[in-house]
User: What shape does this take?
Amino acid sequence: MSVAFRRESDEEHKEPKFELPLPPGPNMVTARGLALIEARAAALEAAVAAESGDEAREVLKRELRYWNTRRTTAQIAPEPEPGVVGIGSRVRVRMNGKDRVIDLVGHDEADPAADRLSFQAPLARALIGAEEGEKVDFGGRAQAIEIIGIETIPD
Assistant: This one.
């Protein structure tokens, strides 16, 4: 048999496992976001310790490395000035004739379905720095969003 058709093991042909990608830019978080990161890392540490299978343990360790990196690089965002939108703000806006409440948070805390947007999201970037009563441009439309109210996200 030719050497070209010989295979020593299945390990030779597995796809490499790369690290989970980190979002670009600074890892700005709210206090709640940091607590969620720490809780996720602690849960994964416990899961790694309890896991008996090598392959499953490696998957958990990979995810744990991601969360440990997020924990060590986390920077709690400074509290925004009163009346100015920033990370940690709950913003009441009017878009397309409809009112909406949006929380601006860090990447790992974001949940767009619950109107918790990462500060890096296009809508969040349009809002950051705006003041109550101001109208801001968005989506190529001038004054598309009206800022109705701004408050700190309650704990």
Remarks:
- Residues 25-76 form one domain.
- The longest strand covers residues 141-152.
- The CA atoms of residues 136 and 142 lie 7 Å apart.
- Helices lie at 31-50, 54-73, 122-127.
